[in-house]
Specification:
By secondary structure, this protein is an alpha/beta fold. 29% of the residues lie in helices and 19% in strands. A nine-stranded mixed beta sheet has the order 3-1-2-4-5-6-7-8-9. The longest helix has 14 residues, at 227-240. It starts with a helix and ends with a strand.
């Protein structure tokens, strides 16, 4: 479905015009789109998640695609992130536009919307070339990532499993799974539970938790894991998924 002129000119996300770190092996642009269905307490993209990013920081879809067209001789990739990009009606339009410019497209997703992901993958015009899925914690702990007044009952084990299976159909070099080492959410037991969801040939990238600008201010007081603790957790993950690594 084509976007209207109004939709094309509506501020949608924060554009990083050039990045060498968001898309493995590619010079890319990245857009962080507004909106998310989770409320991860340690998230530092608070304004995007809550749809309150100052308008002057946001670009419209037209501005984003104009930038890609202008820089197509330099760029080789385009990353669509968030928030949660699958929630944004502009995501299919952006993928099609980037592919028409012969750019490879990477999608970042939290894996909680497998039906939308499946629909995107099923259409060659909107199928991402690379998918990175964030896995926050054990499936049974995902209720901690929802708004307090949310009454939604979701089988997160089934939801995450379906998304992992969809992504695992990609070749190993075109997918990755990511986990932030938040002390309150990631223990050895959580790593074990997550590993049970993943294919054995997964690239599982870990990142250190940053206790700053967290969506839940209480998380700014949580002390990150020490280097020795991180090594122990990542080494344990490697015994379960050999492609586990600290980024």
């Amino acid at each position: 479905m084509d976007l209207t002129e109004e939709q094309l000119n509506k501020p949608r996300g924060v554009l990083i015009k050039t990045t060498l770190v968001d898309f493995p092996g590619r010079v890319a642009s990245t857009v962080f789109l507004e909106g998310c269905n989770l409320r991860c307490p340690y998230c530092y993209n608070t304004n995007l998640v809550l749809n309150c990013e100052p308008a002057e920081n946001l670009c419209s879809i037209k501005e984003i695609t104009d930038h890609l067209e202008k820089r197509q001789k330099v760029l080789t990739g385009f990353v669509i992130s968030g928030g949660e990009a699958l929630l944004n009606p502009a995501t299919p339009h952006l993928i099609r536009a980037a592919k028409k410019l012969n750019l490879k497209v990477k999608l970042d997703t939290n894996g909680t919307l497998p039906d939308l992901l499946e629909k995107l993958i099923a259409n060659p015009e909107t199928k991402p070339d690379f998918i990175a899925m964030d896995i926050k914690t054990s499936p049974q702990k995902y209720s901690l990532l929802l708004e307090k007044d949310s009454l939604t009952k979701i089988d997160f084990h089934e939801v995450l499993r379906k998304s992992v299976d969809l992504i695992s159909a990609y070749p190993p070099q075109e997918r990755e799974f990511r986990t932030v080492l938040v002390p309150s959410l990631i223990t050895k037991e959580d790593i074990k539970n997550i590993a049970e969801l993943l294919p054995k040939d997964a690239s599982w990238q870990f990142a250190q938790f940053r206790n700053e600008n967290c969506l839940n201010p209480d998380y700014n007081e949580i002390i990150p894991y020490l280097d020795g603790d991180i090594k122990e957790l990542v080494d344990y993950a490697k015994t379960l998924i050999p492609g586990a690594a600290l980024r």
